[in-house]
Amino acid sequence: MEKAVFLPDTELHEALAALSADAQVWVPAGDASKPDLVRFQRYRPGLSVRLDARSLVSAKEVLFPRSEALLRFVKEKDLSVPAGHRLHVDDTRTVPPAVVFGCRPCDARGFLTFDRVFLQGPYRDPYYAERREKTTFVSLVCRDADGACFCSAVGSGPADPQGSDAQLIALPDGYVLRAITQRGAALVEKIGRGPTAEQIQAARDMLDQAGREMVGEGSLTAMDAAFRARFQDAAFWHGHIDKCLSCGLCTFVCPTCYCFTITDEARGLSGERIRSWDACMFPHFTLEASGHNPRPSKVERYRNRVGHKFSYFVSKYGQVACCGCGRCIRHCPVSVDIRAVVRDLPVQEEVHA
Amino acid sequence: MPNVVSKNNPYLPQMGTIREIIQETPNIKTFRIVLDDPEQMAAFRFEPGQVGQLSVFGVGESTFVINSPPTRREYLQFSVMKTGEVTRALHRLCEGDPIGVRAPLGNSFPVEALKGKDILFVGGGIGMAPLRTLLLTMVDRREEFGDITVIYGARSPQDLCYRYEFDQWRAAGVNLVLTVDREFPGWEERVGFVPTVLAEEAPSPYNRVAITCGPPIMIKFVLAGLKELGYEDDQILTTLERRMKCGIGLCGRCNIGDTYVCVDGPVFSNTQLRQMVSEL
């Protein structure tokens, strides 16, 4: 390990405070009233940091806020022009450096889906790009997969370095923090202390162990053809999705769901054009002004969600748009399991005469 | 290619001013828009079929085809049917009002591939807008194309757009066949649904490309009618519409399978339509 430090448990807050000096630091933390409801929060002294717990939502909002102003506009009264006002539109913004500290490898990898869409064309999203360039991801090598996790089934794994700038490896009394990228190396320099040979060895052992672990069964990465063959099979989709409530939770907790809406909000002479998270599970998502809806029921909508992640994205970009974090399974109120749906795509049912 | 959609921020509209508004039908208005920056206006280039997003700040944006041809660039023309929130707000605007424009977006008709061919346009109602940009391109480059036949229909004479141009089209050598759904006093052109008139006219598919746009039910029967006349899938072009927000392939709602109507469309051949997942 070329660039690595040891961070004792007792110095975690000190390290986070040090990083906070020149960046927004986001950590998984429990709410005061609900310590087990863990989500990413801006670090502040006294925060109940929970590196040990899986967060309810990913760190998606650090690069892709739930809601953000794309533009601001002001109408300035001016009777010398025919309209009686001039319109000023402003898209200036400031993006502070940020650190996501202690997300899981799946969360960091989830942004690879965003990168493909938001950075690599045909158009580049400047809002995402600016945050991406200024954010350092420190993921924690995962040792506590649960029954909903399936990162290995989408080509990732509990020690996956893709998308992470540095990795935390938990030891009994602290963490070895290992740099993966240049940006990670710059962060590692700021905190911790030189690790002992024993600590390095223990970290190596754990990385090896985690790297060999298979989380989730089989592989869900080559389902493009099976999905297309299944597209028109109404009985298949009904069978899997009739219980769906169309609540959209799966999309909001998903680290790779990036669909959004744009709405204008104005009051008096000024307003904002706002981008917000949206969900393909909602009927209004594709409802046209004429009343026509190309995805009129939850069957078409859920089929699109599965297709987007495991077929369309694969045929377009050669990768699945799923990081296997399992949140959509863990938190679904009616226990829809996307793994089961995708796994069943190529399965031929027995035909009963 | 100079492009109004900013490379730095493709969400940022260019500011323009409405020069002229034409009431086409009781619920369709045409807007002639000039970009406020004269350099941007002079540098603006687009291909027939490309679209633009019009902004009413405080209400939102919607996508419309640029229905003026690239051969006439004194203004950008959009025709808007009053249907939803943004289109209602657009209809409230007046000449001289500011408006935001993000254009050009999307793909275009394969003009170069159509050279030397006979052309059949089949349009219904507001569906004439995307056809108009290509039709006028061909009118302005008339010698590069063969016969141009236009079958254009609407419910009633007053629902036909661009009525004030019909004489010019005919004078330019366009075989214009007009039809309305039923008899109206004073109407001396054809009567009947567009697919019926198409079957009666029966333009030969030999060396011809058909381009159709209109309400979904009309397109359905026109496609069947063209097939009946012997047109192959790759001789038929149409445009698709979808609810759109970003217009730049990101927001995720206008997809049909892995095809995004906003960036891969709006123009598709019937061959392409048949290869898509069936989610029209």
TrEMBL record, chain A:
Signal peptide: none annotated. Keywords: Iron, Iron-sulfur, Metal-binding. It comes from Desulfacinum hydrothermale DSM 13146. InterPro entries: 4Fe4S_Fe-S-bd, 4Fe4S_Fe_S_CS. Coiled coil: none annotated. Pfam families: Fer4_22. SUPFAM superfamilies: alpha-helical ferredoxin (SSF46548). This is 4Fe-4S dicluster domain-containing protein. One of its GO terms (molecular function) is metal ion binding. Residues 234-265, 313-344 form the 4Fe-4S ferredoxin-type domain.
From TrEMBL, chain B:
The keyword Iron-sulfur applies. Pfam families: DHODB_Fe-S_bind, NAD_binding_1. Keywords: 2Fe-2S, Electron transport, FAD, Flavoprotein, Iron, Iron-sulfur, Metal-binding, Transport. One of its GO terms (biological process) is pyrimidine nucleotide biosynthetic process. [2Fe-2S] cluster binds at residues 246, 251, 254, 262. Binds 1 [2Fe-2S] cluster per subunit. It comes from the Bacteria. Its cofactor is [2Fe-2S] cluster. One of its GO terms (molecular function) is flavin adenine dinucleotide binding. Residues 11-111 form the FAD-binding FR-type domain. InterPro entries: Cyt_c3_hydrogenase_gsu, Dihydroorotate_DH_ele_sf, Dihydroorotate_DH_Fe-S-bd, FAD-bd_FR_type, Flavoprot_Pyr_Nucl_cyt_Rdtase, FNR_nucleotide-bd, OxRdtase_FAD/NAD-bd, PyrK_electron_transfer. PROSITE patterns: FAD_FR. This is NAD(P)H-flavin reductase. It comes from Desulfacinum hydrothermale DSM 13146.
